[in-house]
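Could someone model SN-glycerol-1-phosphate with this protein?
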Amino acid sequence: MTKMILRKLEDFKKQQKKSFALLIDPDNIDEVQCLELIHLAKQAGVDFLFVGGSLITGNNLGMVVEIAKAHSEIPIILFPGSSLHIDSEADAILFLSLISGRNPDFLIGQHILAAPILKKSSLEILPTGYMLVDTGRQTTVSFISNTTPIPYDKPTVAACIAMAGEMLGLKLIYMDGGSGAEKPISPQMIQAVSKSIEVPLIVGGGINSPEKALSALRAGADVIVVGNAIEKDFLLVEKIAKTVQEYM
Ligand code: 1GP
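Reply:
Sure, complex below.
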């Protein structure tokens, strides 16, 4: 696949076209399930596959990428938790700098380790400002990254962080409430961030119904990410895709 994913996201934003990324956590799926989910995603017209997680304990990353590649044309974007989570068979990687935190390892450290490997790969690099939002309980990613998430009710703080990320040249902003969050990021916060930046805004964490997907889109998310809820109910993939595709 040519390196056109960022361009596609930017064009979608200009056209006010929303998109849907299905997140597959390699630890939570086996080969048979993966094949079934990829077929459903293809049928539903999912725009992007995010593959990864903050902590990967098994050996399934390669399997998920291989199955997705063999059975669909959906762009495969790595969503790594560290520099260990690289698979050069994917199409792109979210090169995440955890800009809501103050841990240098996740701001720049892991990136230095990954850079020479990525340079040799054909992966499209997507420089992304990653912002963790407190949605009620500590998440694996905030524990592992040893960073404090943005308070749930502080949209202005989130907006300032996103603006700074954009000014530093990051091409995407990803606001995440963490996988399986009890509640998604508030529409007020999504709106405040969306109004403050020009780059595409990705929103995920706790979106477990078409209604919640719609609320995030209305607030200004350009891409919504759903993982956990679809792991529990594969048929939700079609319902969420329909909501995104019919969004006006
Ligand atoms: C998590 O944003 C993603 O990092 C998706 O969250 O698994 O809650 O859908 P869910």
